[in-house]
Amino acid sequence: MRIIADLQIHSKYSGATSSRMVLEELSYYARLKGLDVLGTGDALHPIWMEELKRGLEKVDEKGVYRLRGSGGGPLFIVQTEVATIHELDKKTRRIHHVILFRDLEAAAQAADLLSKYGDLRSDGRPILDITPAFLVELMMEVSQDCLIFPAHAWTPWWSIFGAISGVDTVEECYEDKSDKIYAIETGLSSDPLMNWRVSRLDRYTLLSSSDSHSPYPYRLGREAVVFELEDVSYDEIVDAIKKKDSKRIIMTLEVPPSYGKYHWSGHRRCGVGPIPPARAREMGYRCPICGRRLTKGVEDRVEELADRPPGARPPGALDFQYVIPLQELIAVSMGLDYSSETALNSKKVWQQYMGLINSLGNEFHILLDASLEKIAEVSGPRLATLIADMRRGAIKIRPGYDGVYGRIIFGSASGNTRTPTQKRGSLEDFL
Length: 431
Known about the structure:
The chain is of the alpha/beta class. It contains 15 helices and 18 strands. The protein has helices spanning 23-33, 46-55, 104-114, 132-142, 170-174, 192-195, 234-243, 277-282, 298-305, 326-333, 341-344, 347-360, 363-368, 372-379, 381-391; strands spanning 2-6, 37-39, 56-58, 65-67, 75-88, 91-101, 127-128, 147-150, 183-185, 205-207, 224-228, 249-254, 265-267, 272-275, 319-322, 396-398, 407-409, 416-417. Helix 3 crosses helix 4 and helix 14 packs antiparallel against helix 15. It is globular, with a radius of gyration of 21 Å. Residues 412-431 have low confidence and may be disordered.
């Protein structure tokens, strides 16, 4: 059974999130997207926890939940993200971690323990004054079934390998609890190709998720993991991740990393960027206008830690496929500014989006499997051409920098192009 999972999102109780990040909205838009499993987000927040208890019901004893009374999907896995702050080598390290729980009871126990080290009510993603190793120790005390892994691993701020407050290795971060770390979430500004260049990451399962702050399908599920499972349960999903099982983890779905907000270096305040790695190094990572430090890009940081050349693929590496949210492709096909949420939420974009969904199926099916001829029949040849470009990796992007999303350019020689290392077929080719 093919399962597409977005294991890391937020609720309306996290900072800078939509007030529509509630269970009913998440469930509705996940179905449009084609998501089968969704993280709950923010399971340590006391108010959100009460909403989860009221709004969800267990599916047998499988460690997954569904919207109460819905009788169907998507399924939910109890999940949160937390931040830790600690000192290492006279430098403050700020790192985000994803935690999966087998049930709401385990999350409640975790909240009871962690409330001693931070204000869980202040934000859905609480800041804890503890080391990552102690965080793992506490979660293992709650249950050995808990799965913890670093979130958006390369983002300059608040990540394990971040240029500003991260470290160089998993062992530096989690110390004597490193053996309890089985996965790394790569984040929007990096992809498997980049992570494969760092050989010490070979043992970890590379995961992708949306980290969504909005329920709309141009944010929810923009990155995800594709599983092939006999039984959709918490235990099987976690076991597949722990074992890096390529028979059960088919691939990850990725936005091209240049699309991410921190792919290259730059200084947004002065309008300087994106700056390619070699040029940024020549500049000493200083803004030529104000002299302040540039925000170092993820590609630069990967280059610092890499011990393999670009294009290297280690044995046992899981596959991946680039995707771009369908609403963004529709907006581009209409000549609209796809980076504008006003455009993405416009009546004409939604009408075409829902026309495709009603005619052809969910968004992932349209992006990855649907006949281009049928797409053209419903929405015209321009959109079909854009989806064909996306499927074969013919996507050119002006890279994102310092919090500015990359600019997608179709059919242009400008920008930075990244393509997979092998020809990609439809999603069915991997099953």
